[in-house]
Amino acid sequence: MFFFKRSKKKHQEDLHIDLDNVPEHIAIIMDGNGRWAKAKGLPRTMGHKAGVETIRNIVKDCSNIGIKYLTLYAFSTENWKRPKDEVNALMELLVTYLRQEFEELNRNNVIINNIGDISMLPKRCREELDSAYERTKNNTGLTLNLALNYGGRKEILDAVNGLVDDIKDGKLQCTKVTEDILERYLYTKDMPDPDIIIRPSGEQRLSNFLLWQCAYSEFWYSNINWPDFTKEDLHKAIWDYQHRDRRFGGIK
Ligand code: IPE
Ligand code: IPE
Ligand code: MG
């Protein structure tokens, strides 16, 4: 039966992506940590730990191949529904990641940014995120957006409320809200929309991710769980992206 086995080497083969035409902004819904752990008979938190290893590799690769923005969905506004122990473990992993990776990310010119309402995160996390941003905000390489306590609907509501406050305070004069004005109040202000949204683990939904910004994003799904997601998988997604026809409602 051995000849039915698929060659691992072939599967792992790297695709030649066009480095002059990489997406400017890649967004990833990092999913499948729990299922990865379950399949191995491990606790879910071990899946999250393994997921952090994937983050390390993917961030490095994005930085190397010249991606300008990488947004990673790490914790949604709905993820608070999970058991307290799991939420705490995720927050701890965030602090550890930032501490362990800071020097190398900074050396590689990465801006460590976050999107979402981090005011609800534990103080330790907020301090670590603020300090990472302060120390890297003048870098000029990849912007790493960690989406934490992020929800697309909340983002739009926060933007509308911010805008209403500014009108009330006389800081903004307008009688009609335009797309441009609203975008100035989003967490992603001054950033391009994601060109491609990647979701591993087999689920094909947005789960409240970048609802405003995804209007013309390309979607890319795979059955691989996030801890098993490799640089080669990322390159496969980029290769597919490079062979798609984006029309933005127009015609060729
Ligand atoms: C993604 O993995 C990580 C977070 C949502 C924080 P999951 O924990 O959702 O993994 P599954 O979907 O249960 O496998
Ligand atoms: C989306 O994954 C959120 C993150 C990856 C942070 P979930 O696992 O929470 O999404 P659902 O519940 O399957 O839609
Ligand atoms: Mg999930």
**CATH architecture, please?**
3-Layer(aba) Sandwich
- Alpha carbon gyration radius: 19 Å
What is the number of domains?
Answer: 1
Instruction: Using the alpha-carbon principal axes, give the shape.
Output: globular
Helix content: 40-55%
For the record, the CATH class is: Alpha Beta
Strand content: 5-15%
Low-confidence spans: pLDDT under 50, at least 5 residues? 1-11
* Ligands bound to this protein structure: 3-methylbut-3-enyl trihydrogen diphosphate, magnesium ion
Secondary structure tally, helices: 8
Oligomer: single chain
How many E-type strands? 6
CATH-defined topology: Undecaprenyl pyrophosphate synthetase
- Tell me about the biggest sheet? 6 strands, parallel
Q: Taking all residues together, what is the mean pLDDT?
A: 95
Task: Kindly report the spatial arrangement of strands forming the biggest sheet.
Answer: 3-4-2-1-5-6
Distance between the termini: 49 Å
Note the run of SSEs as H and E: HEHHEHEHEHHEEH
Q: Pairing-aware structural class of the strands and helices?
A: alpha/beta
CATH superfamily: Decaprenyl diphosphate synthase-like
How does the SSE layout of this entry go?
Elements: H1 8-12, E1 25-29, H2 33-39, H3 44-64, E2 69-76, H4 84-107, E3 111-115, H5 123-136, E4 143-150, H6 152-168, H7 179-183, E5 196-199, E6 218-221, H8 231-242
Parallel strand pairs: 1-2, 1-5, 2-4, 3-4, 5-6
Helix pairs in contact: 2-3, 3-4, 4-5
One 3-methylbut-3-enyl trihydrogen diphosphate binds at residues 29-31, 73-76, 79, 203, 205, 207.
